[in-house]
Structure formats: structure tokens, C-alpha cells
Description:
The protein is α/β, with parallel strands linked by helices. The protein has helices at 9-26, 41-52, 80-87, 109-122, 159-165, 184-188, 203-211, 239-242, and strands at 2-6, 31-34, 62-65, 67-70, 99-100, 128-131, 153-156, 178-181, 192-197, 229-234.
Amino acid sequence: xxxxxxxxxxxxxxxxxxxxxxxxxxxxxxxxxxxxxxxxxxxxxxxxxxxxxxxxxxxxxxxxxxxxxxxxxxxxxxxxxxxxxxxxxxxxxxxxxxxxxxxxxxxxxxxxxxxxxxxxxxxxxxxxxxxxxxxxxxxxxxxxxxxxxxxxxxxxxxxxxxxxxxxxxxxxxxxxxxxxxxxxxxxxxxxxxxxxxxxxxxxxxxxxxxxxxxxxxxxxxxxxxxxxxxxxxxxxxxxxxxxx
Length: 244
Ligand code: GLP
């Protein structure tokens, strides 16, 4: 793993945006795997800035998002569909129909998962996969469990994840209990992986991801087996790792 430790969230976001921009400069028709959540929002803002300055072009790329709540309406302001539209897609020249997100409106989630995997395979797999990490070590919505899920699948979100995500929902609004998530197999098949994390609440998961036993109980630990992973952290997320 190539591990970069930054002074703060802003530096982490800029470095990550630069790495995605570099991928698109070197290979404009890249297939990108994209992530949502609080962590990448500034990174997306930075990518939009780079696009507006003419540094990066999205017109030939294809993207697949890691996950989506299930069930959820695309029009819901809590959907990852809406998140991607607001944070990136509305501001750059991405081609219509080339930015894919698991469909939270699908009537048959298992069929949706199968078709999502087929689409990723038909594109030749993912060139660069962006990841955040949950406090419990989940990547995408691959929750700690007894085994690693290979393909896109329907997940029951665990309590810790629901609590962490409650901050994006209004009081009284129900936090979804399920999600569609790309599997660990999809993630590990990506040619390159970029994982970003900030804040002390991620420090334990980061330490275990890098130094812990490879186990589905800490899903991100599987990244130790990937040959091209870059981890960009702020000082807080790196705090346990740095002083161990
Ligand atoms: C969420 C998302 C993940 C994300 C992770 C961390 O539940 N489904 O894709 O990377 O958990 O989220 P955040 O960046 O908000 O801490």
C-alpha cells in the first residue's frame, strides 16, 4: 500500500482529486468506481474546479458507483443518485447514460445486482476505484461478516452504519436499513484503488486495515492483498497508525 499522510482534510481532498484527474488525463476513457458519503465531498468540489479550469475532461469516461440505499427513490435528496448529481454530475461534461449507480427503485434487487455486475464486466472492469471507509471497516456497504461477498448484492446495514449515516437524514426521518453494494470481488478486480479517510473516528479502522489480520470482520483489510492501493489520510485518520 502506498500511504500518504496529509496535514488536513483539504490537502487530502486535493491530492485525491489530482489522482483522479491524472487517471483521466492519462486514460480519458477510464472506467471510474465512485464513492459517496461525507469524506469525498470536497474532493468532488476540487474535481469540478479542475474541470472548469480545463485540466480534466469527463466526456469519454464511464463511472460505476459503489452503492445505493434500497429501496429509495432517485429523486430523494437522501439517495446517492441525488448526491452524485449535486456533487459532481451536474457540473461536469459526463456523458448521459455513462454514469451508473445501483438502482434503488428496482423491483427485483437481485436482478438489479446481477445486471450491475454484467455492466461492469462489459466495460472491462474498473480502472480506478475510489473508496471511503466506515468506522467499522466497511468499504462500499460491505459490512463486517463471516465471508467476503464477491459481486453486487443486497446488504442489511448494521447498527453502527445506520447511526453514522443518520447525520444525513432529518430528525424523525427513517434511515434505510438495506442497500445495494458492489461486492469485494468487484472492488478487488479494479486495476487501481484509492481510499481516502479523515477524522479520528476512522483511525482504528485505518490501523486495522493496514496492520490487522485479513478478515471479513474488517472488510477493508482485504485491500492488503491488492497490488495497487493508494491510501490518502489526514493526520487524524492516520493518528493511531503513525504512533504505533
Ligand atoms: C457509507 C458509504 C460508503 C462510505 C462510508 C464512509 O456508509 N456507503 O461508501 O465510503 O460509509 O462514509 P463517510 O465518508 O460519510 O464517513
